[in-house]
User: Which sequence fits this backbone?
């Protein structure tokens, strides 16, 4: 089952006495039976060791800690793999450990015809950085048999290790052919003769301890974390080549060899982060509630005085919520990919809480730059060119008929009903509100401003923007075991808005005025970043770029809300990046799995290969249109957003 929880289980053969000396022979028999039956194994071993075998796999990653010296951090490099063993290197432990390893190998060979053991240990780095001794390059030494090396596996491991960068420094990788493929001062896990008879390949992987202070032995946690990410990927790539070339197993991708069963701690941490994230709605709290009411006052003051804007009361104390946020123990998560996602989400929540505390203060704008980014020269040039090409007199259609909030809500309800037929658990609904302007999706529901007047020509485009993208990805994310996929992974807004605007194009509703508006939002953010005031920005949008006064006002308010928010630039930036993704052959459908960023796609794909994520239930209704495929083909040959201007 995707996303299944695996708990730690004590064997009936395990006892307090055995932790000091050995395990009962029945324990090893139990391990063999569970492997043959395809059952997951998570077992404590003597001396605080650990055995994890996620499912039937033809490899085992091993780490033995030394007895006479500290080796802080190294065992973390193997945790999180689908098949690993951590044990003491003490001589008193060697006998039973060797029997356990031999039994695992025999069983793997019985199932797959061959077995691979990669034993990892650390050593002091050899190339000290003369400028800063604490910043050293990652060093690896692959030690393989001179008589029967698994050549293609070694090549794959070497290539993957060379791609690892820590502190912006490339790795050093050497290959050594030696019969002695074990840590110094330790006995072999399995003899060369026995390995040959069993058809087992043993590879030693020595890593330089650049993640520790070479004098004190203190661990540099961020360097260790980065090394763990890279090494985990390298180990899976090596195991993939080994499985494909030297066993009967035929995995479809190296990422399919990652861990599937996740412990309860992962889901509990995920739940806690989602709970904290749901305690406040960031955009609602930084958006004024009196935008419409302030407009007449702005007019009466001849557009020379910024009206007073009022905000919702903050329902949380940011400082107290931060305390709760950093009490979530992400450090206990073994899987480096998932731990990294959870840390990124924690950082994003932290930034939003800081911005809530800084609302209407100068620091708010600086937080916005951290959260949503600035305006690149390329994006600014694109926006300027769009504004130059599209006349301010462009219209959505020949006849400007409008529907009110009630009329739009009725059309939205029909769209919701379509999705309920596909997925009955969908509970979303339209809601008319007097405290918002325009449209907004909150917790899967569509909020419609009470005073909204929507051009008939824009109805379908907005339905697909809000419901076909924002609501749909919320519920697809809800269907996943990870709550972050509906809460939103860090930086998800860019892809979300890119998909939403693309949906407008795919239903024939991406008008010239709409494209001008997106470009105007970019220019407004750019002006604010360059130091323009609210009044300066309003005048520039109106006088230079030809936006009518009300539109220029709305754009400016959105840009300066809270103290300066650059979020509105993500619409055009997201659309531009999404077109680049499609041009490179990227598939559209996988992007609807939840609220993710394009940069998360490799991680999402890995979790799909590992069967941690579920197939998602909803596809946009417009994908059923006859012209969907032809339009998508056109987009794949579109060089720029400028090509969408018709």
Assistant:
């Amino acid at each position: 089952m995707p996303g299944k929880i695996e708990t730690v289980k004590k064997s009936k053969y395990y006892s307090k006495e055995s932790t000091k000396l050995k395990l009962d022979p029945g324990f090893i028999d139990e391990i063999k039976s569970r492997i043959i039956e395809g059952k997951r194994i998570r077992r404590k071993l003597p001396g605080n060791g650990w055995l994890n075998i996620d499912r039937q796999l033809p490899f085992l990653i091993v780490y033995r800690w030394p007895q006479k010296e500290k080796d802080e951090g190294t065992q973390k490099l193997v945790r999180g793999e689908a098949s690993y063993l951590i044990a003491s290197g003490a001589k008193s432990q060697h006998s039973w450990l060797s029997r356990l390893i031999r039994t695992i190998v025999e069983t793997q060979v019985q199932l797959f015809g061959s077995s691979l053991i990669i034993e990892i240990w650390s050593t002091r780095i050899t190339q000290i950085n003369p400028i800063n001794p604490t910043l050293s390059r990652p060093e690896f030494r692959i030690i393989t048999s001179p008589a029967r090396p698994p050549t293609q596996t070694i090549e794959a491991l070497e290539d993957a290790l060379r791609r690892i960068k820590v502190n912006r420094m490339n790795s050093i990788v050497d290959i050594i052919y030696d019969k002695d493929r074990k840590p110094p001062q330790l006995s072999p896990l399995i003899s060369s003769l026995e390995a040959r008879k069993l058809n087992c390949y043993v590879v030693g992987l020595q890593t330089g301890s650049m993640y520790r202070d070479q004098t004190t032995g203190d661990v540099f946690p961020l360097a260790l974390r980065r090394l763990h990410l890279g090494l985990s990927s390298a180990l899976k790539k090596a195991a993939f080549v080994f499985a494909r070339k030297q066993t009967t197993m035929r995995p479809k991708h190296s990422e399919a060899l990652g861990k599937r069963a996740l412990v309860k701690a992962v889901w509990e941490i995920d739940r806690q982060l989602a709970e904290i994230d749901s305690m406040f709605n960031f955009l609602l709290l930084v958006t004024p509630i009196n935008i419409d009411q302030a407009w007449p006052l702005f007019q009466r003051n001849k557009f020379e005085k910024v009206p007073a804007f009022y905000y919702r009361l903050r329902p949380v104390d940011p400082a107290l919520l931060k305390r709760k946020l950093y009490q979530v123990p992400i450090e206990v998560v073994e899987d480096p990919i998932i731990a990294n996602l959870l840390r990124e989400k924690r950082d994003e929540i932290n930034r939003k809480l800081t911005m809530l505390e800084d609302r209407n203060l100068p620091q708010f704008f600086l937080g916005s730059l951290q959260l949503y980014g600035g305006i690149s020269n390329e994006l600014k040039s694109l926006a300027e060119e769009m504004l130059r090409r599209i006349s301010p007199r462009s219209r959505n259609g020949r006849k400007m008929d409008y529907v009110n909030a009630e009329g739009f809500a009725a059309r939205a309800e029909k769209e919701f009903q379509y999705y309920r037929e596909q997925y009955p658990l969908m509970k979303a609904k339209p809601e008319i509100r007097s405290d918002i302007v325009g449209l907004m999706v909150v917790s899967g529901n569509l909020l419609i401003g009470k005073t909204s007047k929507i051009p008939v020509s824009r109805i379908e485009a907005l339905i697909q923007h809000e419901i076909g993208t924002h609501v749909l990805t919320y519920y697809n994310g809800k269907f996943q075991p990870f709550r972050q996929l509906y809460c939103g992974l860090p930086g998800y807004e860019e892809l979300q808005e890119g998909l939403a605007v693309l949906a407008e194009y795919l239903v024939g509703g991406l008008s010239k005025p709409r494209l001008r508006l997106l470009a105007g939002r970019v220019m407004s953010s750019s002006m604010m970043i360059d130091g323009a005031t609210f009044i300066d920005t309003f005048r520039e949008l109106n006088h230079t770029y030809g936006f009518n006064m009300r539109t220029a006002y709305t754009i400016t308010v959105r840009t300066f809300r809270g103290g300066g928010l650059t979020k509105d630039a993500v619409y055009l930036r997201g659309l531009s990046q999404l077109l680049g993704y499609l041009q490179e052959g990227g598939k559209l459908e996988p992007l609807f799995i939840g609220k993710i960023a394009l940069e998360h796609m490799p991680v999402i794909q890995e979790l799909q290969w590992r069967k941690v994520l579920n197939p998602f239930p909803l596809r946009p209704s417009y994908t059923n249109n006859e012209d969907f495929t032809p339009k998508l083909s056109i987009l794949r040959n579109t060089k720029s957003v400028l090509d969408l201007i018709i």
Summary: The chain has two domains: 17-261, 281-315+358-644. The two ends are 48 Å apart (CA to CA). Residues 281-315+358-644 form one domain. The chain has a mean pLDDT of 91.
